[in-house]
Amino acid sequence: MLVLRYTQKLLKDMKVAPVAVEEVSTFFSWHVNIMQLRKKYILFVHDASRLCIVLDGIRSGQADKLIEKFRTELKEYLLQEGFKKQLIDQYLLEAGEIIISSTNSKGVLGTMNEITFFNTVDRDFDSLYERNKWLNTMIHKPIDYNKPINVFRESLSSRYS
Questions:
Q1: CA-to-CA dists, residue 109 to 6, 7, 11, 51, 103, angstroms
Q2: Which residue, of 66, 86, 102, 111, has the fewest CB within 10 Å?
Q3: Count of CB atoms situated within 10 Å of the CB of 147
Q4: Burial, 69: exposed, middle or buried (Cβ in 10 Å; 0-12, 13-18, 19+)?
Q5: Does the global pTM surpass 0.85?
Q6: Does the structure show a pLDDT above 90 at 26?
Q7: Alpha-carbon Rg of the chain, whole angstroms?
Q8: Could you tell me the strand order of the sheet in which 29-36 lies?
Q9: 3-class SS string, the chain
Q10: What is the pLDDT of residues 84-124, one digit of tens each?
């Protein structure tokens, strides 16, 4: 099972109730929040690697659309980053159904705040892919000052190779 851990703000915006879940590996857990810049974005941060995906085009109350768009955009982003399709497919297959729960890690929330701060810097991107690529090359202390894209790549490769 893949757990999307929505902040209280996002739970209210999407009009969904969180489901209590037993312990889930951080490999299958993502924290999710609203990131308000010039328009509304949704920020996903992978708990174990701090890989982030920024999405747009989601309105209030579109929880099902958000989940489907996340699956699609995650796969597309990883393919553009050079990940093997079979590794991505294996991750999504093992993840299985997606459960919406509430946040449980102050560390990941802190990383989300950092990412939101970096996005407030007046910097224009041609696409969300460019924004995601830039964000995933920033180093973070919780992953021993590594780049999230490299940590996620290593985790995926070691698990499925």
A1: 11, 9, 15, 13, 8
A2: 86
A3: 17
A4: middle
A5: yes
A6: yes
A7: 15
A8: 52-55, 40-46, 29-36, 2-6, 98-102
A9: CEEEEECHHHHHHHCCCCCCCCCCCHHHEEEEEEEECCCEEEEEEECCCCCEEEECCCCCCCHHHHHHHHHHHHHHHHHHCCCCHHHHHHHHHHHCCEEEEECCCHHHHHHHHHHHHHHHCCCCCCCHHHHHHHHCCCCEHHHCCECHHHHHHHHHHHHHC
A10: 999 999 999 999 999 999 999 999 999 999 999 988 876 77
Residue with tokens 């729960």: 101
Q: Which residues pair with 2 in a beta bridge?
A: 98
Please report the pLDDT score of residue 122 as a whole number: 65
61 closest CA partner among 101, 22, 133, 13: 13
pLDDT value at residue 30 = 98
Give the phi and the psi of residue 62 in degrees, each rounded to 5.
-100, 55
